Amino acid sequence: MSGSELGGRFFDAAIGLLERLRDEEAEGIAAAGTLIADTVAAEGRLFAFGAGHSSLAAQEIVYRAGGLALMNLLAVPGAVGVDVVPATLGSALERVEGLATAVLDSSPARAGDLLVIISLSGRNALPIEMAMHARALGLKVIGITSVAYASETKSRHASGTYLKDHCDLVLDSKIPVGDAELTLDTVPAPFAPASGVVTSALLQAVMATTAGALADRGIEPPLLRSGNVDGGHEWNARVFEEYADRIFYLR
């Protein structure tokens, strides 16, 4: 099979997953957008968290042209993408209990705020504890995860639970266990992960729904414009000033 054919197969697989999300998660996406809009309207703050490559999806909705200015990254040192050397340290930190509690207790998050947690497997201690402690603090939690992992893998948290068990709302990314869409007889391992593109699209669908929900209430969504279009910086400066008490990535 040629490289171009494999490329086409990957696009087909990713498009298939996106179509499933559009059709099967529509109700959840609408509910997530409403929950975030409720938080914004109530002057709550928004946070997003993900560890490892799941952090890349979290970063996709923070300080983003066309995105909500109020979404802040809740960063765990050493677990933001592949920002440490060796990279395997980040994976090890995901299994450390107590870390999420320390991070949340040191963050500006408080009761009435909302936290989006992205974890493909939802089985590691860090995202599970993050959700548990966030809810104990009075935050609403939206989980983005592949629910299939809960039936095909073992939890790595002392409770034996998964991220999906500690959220106010769960969106299922539909990513298969192992996160690889393609196989080939001449390649010994499955390859071509789709979780990045699929999870990012799912999150952007939620953000779009939030913007619409706010507009329906007569509230101007606090959106950012691209700094590469004329007037973009001036627009963003106004938004930053108006919502300074709810934006933490500028401090």
TrEMBL record:
Belongs to the UPF0309 family. This is UPF0309 protein G6048_20825. Residues 36-219 form the SIS domain. InterPro entries: RpiR-like_SIS (IPR035472), SIS_dom (IPR001347), SIS_dom_sf (IPR046348), SIS_GmhA/DiaA_subfam (IPR050099), UPF0309 (IPR022951). It comes from Streptomyces ureilyticus. Pfam families: SIS_2.
